[in-house]
TrEMBL record:
PANTHER family for this protein: PBSX PHAGE TERMINASE LARGE SUBUNIT, PTHR39184
Domain named Phage terminase large subunit C-terminal: residues: 272-439
InterPro entries named in the record: P-loop_NTPase (IPR027417), Phage_terminase_lsu (IPR006437), Terminase_L_C (IPR035413), Terminase_L_N (IPR035412), Viral_DNA_packaging_terminase (IPR052380)
One Pfam family matching this protein: Terminase_3
Species the sequence originates in: Cytobacillus kochii
Residue ranges annotated for the Phage terminase large subunit N-terminal domain, each copy included: 24-238
Name under which the protein is recorded: Terminase
Length: 452
C-alpha cells in the first residue's frame, strides 16, 4: 500500500458532511444524476475498512444491486476507484486482488473483502456466511421491488457484525423515481425523522468542488431546455409526477429527409408481436455518427377485421423481407445491424424466424412499464430522437410509413386510477409501436447512451 494522499475535504463536497460524520446505522442517499452520492458512499466504505486493516483486522463489506449482471461495470469499478484514492493498488500483484468469479476484491494481507452480489441470486446471498461485516451498500435501490427485499438480507448481515464495530452500517443510494407514489419514495419519506435513519438529498447543484464539468453542465442545460420536468426528475431528483399523457410529442422531431452531413452507422430492429388478436409492429431505427437516433421505417400489421389472419410463418416471411429491404438501401450501406429485439413473451414467431432464416431475435428484459417508459424519456429529453416523415420506400405491404408510430404515441396515456400507485399502467390499446420503441431503448441503452 502506498501512503494515502487523499484529502477527504477535496473529495467529498461539504453538502455530504452529515453523511461522513453521522453515527446512525441506516443512511439513505437520494438525489439526481451527477450528485456524486455513490462516490461518497464508496469512499466511506473504503475508509471504514482501512481503519481495521491498519489494525491487522479482517473486515468485510457487502455491495448489492438488484440485477447481478450490472455489478461488474458499475459498483465493482467504483470500489476500485475508491481503493486507489486511498493509496491501495488493485490487481494480481496489488494490495487487493480482484476476482470475477465470484466477484470480489480481497486484501491480501488481512483477507478483508468487498463482496458483490445481485439480489436476483438471493438464496446464495442468504446462505453465505461472510462474517466480520462492517458495511452493506444497496446501489440503485429503486430497482428493488419493495422494502421487504432489504429486510430479508439486513438481518442476515447484522448477525455477522465485526466484533470491533458498534454496528453494521447500511447505505442506500438511488435516483428518486418520477412517480411520487413509487414505493421507495414513500419508504424513504417515512424514514425522515426516524432516530436511526439519515435521509440525505442532493443534486448536481450541491457541487462546490468542481466535479461537475462544463461538458456535463452543457448536457444538463440541453435537457433542461428540452424537457423541464424531466430535468427536475433526472438532475434535481424530484418526483415530478407522471401527468396523463406519457410523452411530450414536441420531442419527436420530424425529418423530411436524412441529413446530408450525418450518416447512419448502425441499424436496430425492434418488434412487438400479436397474431390473431393484436397487431405486430417492427421498427427500423438508425444511429448516426453524431448520435442522432432516427425511426427510419416501420412494419405494421393488424389482424383486426381480417378473415384470414397471418400465421407466424407469414409474419416471419414479412419481417425478413422488411429487414432485407430496409438494411440494403443505399443510404445505409455499411451500417451493420447491431441488434434485433423482440417481446420476451413471444415464442412462436421467434422460433419460426430462427427456423426459416437462421437468425436469432433477442428477447427484451422487461421492466415495470414506468421504468421502460423512462428509457424513452431519457432519449427524448436529450433532443436526439427523430423520425422520417416519408421513409425510403421498400414497396412492401404494411411498410413505408411512420404515421401509425406518431399517432399511437400521441394517444398513449397513463390509466388515471393507477397513477397514484407504485405500479402505474398505460392504456393497452393501439400501443404496439409504443412497445417496440420501448424495447428498442431498453435493449440498446448502452449504444444509445441512455441510463444503464
Amino acid at each position: 500500500m502506498n501512503k494515502p494522499t487523499i484529502d477527504i475535504q477535496k473529495e467529498v463536497n461539504p453538502h455530504f458532511k452529515s453523511v461522513w460524520t453521522t453515527k446512525k446505522p441506516y443512511n439513505i442517499l437520494r438525489g439526481g444524476r451527477n450528485s456524486f452520492k455513490s462516490s461518497v458512499i464508496v469512499l466511506m466504505l473504503v475508509f471504514m475498512m482501512m481503519k481495521l486493516i491498519r489494525k491487522g483486522e479482517k473486515a468485510n463489506v457487502v455491495v448489492i444491486r438488484k440485477v447481478g449482471t450490472s455489478l461488474r461495470d458499475s459498483v465493482f469499478l467504483k470500489i476500485q476507484w475508491a481503493l486507489r484514492k486511498f493509496g491501495f493498488s488493485v490487481g494480481k500483484t496489488g494490495d487487493f486482488k480482484d476476482s470475477v468469479a465470484p466477484l470480489k476484491l480481497t486484501h491480501k494481507s488481512t483477507g478483508s473483502t468487498f463482496y458483490f452480489y445481485g439480489q436476483d441470486d438471493f438464496q446464495k446471498l442468504k446462505s453465505n456466511d461472510i462474517g466480520n461485516i462492517i458495511g452493506v451498500w444497496y446501489e440503485e435501490a429503486a430497482e428493488f421491488a419493495n422494502a421487504e427485499e432489504f429486510d430479508q438480507t439486513n438481518t442476515t448481515f447484522m448477525r455477522q457484525k465485526h466484533p470491533l464495530v458498534d454496528m453494521v452500517r447500511f447505505f442506500w443510494s438511488y435516483n428518486p423515481p418520477r412517480n411520487p407514489y413509487s414505493w421507495i419514495n414513500e419508504w424513504s419519506d417515512s424514514m425522515v425523522g426516524e432516530d436511526n435513519y439519515l435521509v440525505h438529498d442532493s443534486s448536481y447543484k450541491n457541487d462546490e468542488l468542481g466535479f461537475v464539468t462544463e461538458q456535463m453542465l452543457q448536457d444538463i442545460e440541453r435537457i433542461k431546455n428540452n424537457d423541464y420536468d424531466y430535468y427536475r426528475y433526472l438532475y434535481l431528483g424530484e418526483p415530478v409526477g407522471l401527468g396523463t399523457n406519457v410523452y411530450n410529442m414536441s420531442l419527436f422531431k420530424p425529418l423530411e429527409q436524412l441529413p446530408d452531413d450525418d450518416r447512419v452507422i448502425a441499424l436496430f430492429y425492434s418488434m412487438d408481436t400479436g397474431h390473431s388478436v393484436s397487431a405486430t409492429s417492427c421498427g427500423c431505427y438508425g444511429l448516426t455518427a453524431r448520435g442522432k437516433v432516427i425511426r427510419l421505417n416501420g412494419y405494421y400489421y393488424s389482424p383486426a377485421g381480417q378473415v384470414n389472419k397471418k400465421a407466424p410463418s407469414d409474419l416471419s416471411k414479412d419481417i425478413f423481407q422488411f429487414i432485407m429491404a430496409t438494411s440494403t438501401q443505399a443510404p445505409y450501406t455499411g451500417a451493420r445491424i447491431r441488434n434485433r429485439t423482440i417481446d420476451s413473451a413471444e415464442g412462436a414467431l421467434r422460433n419460426q424466424y430462427l427456423k426459416d432464416h437462421g437468425q436469432h431475435w433477442n428477447p427484451v428484459n422487461k421492466l415495470k412499464k414506468v421504468d421502460m417508459v423512462d428509457y424513452v424519456h431519457d432519449l427524448l429529453a436529450q433532443g436526439r430522437f427523430y423520425y422520417l416523415v416519408n421513409p425510403l420506400p421498400t414497396n412492401l405491404p404494411n411498410c413505408d410509413s411512420n404515421d401509425i408510430f406518431i399517432e399511437e404515441h400521441k394517444k398513449y396515456q397513463w390509466i388515471e386510477k393507477t397513477q397514484n400507485t407504485d405500479n402505474p399502467q398505460v392504456v393497452k390499446e393501439d400501443d404496439h409501436t409504443c412497445d417496440d420503441f420501448q424495447y428498442f431503448c431498453v435493449s440498446n441503452a448502452r449504444d444509445l447512451r441512455l441510463k444503464v
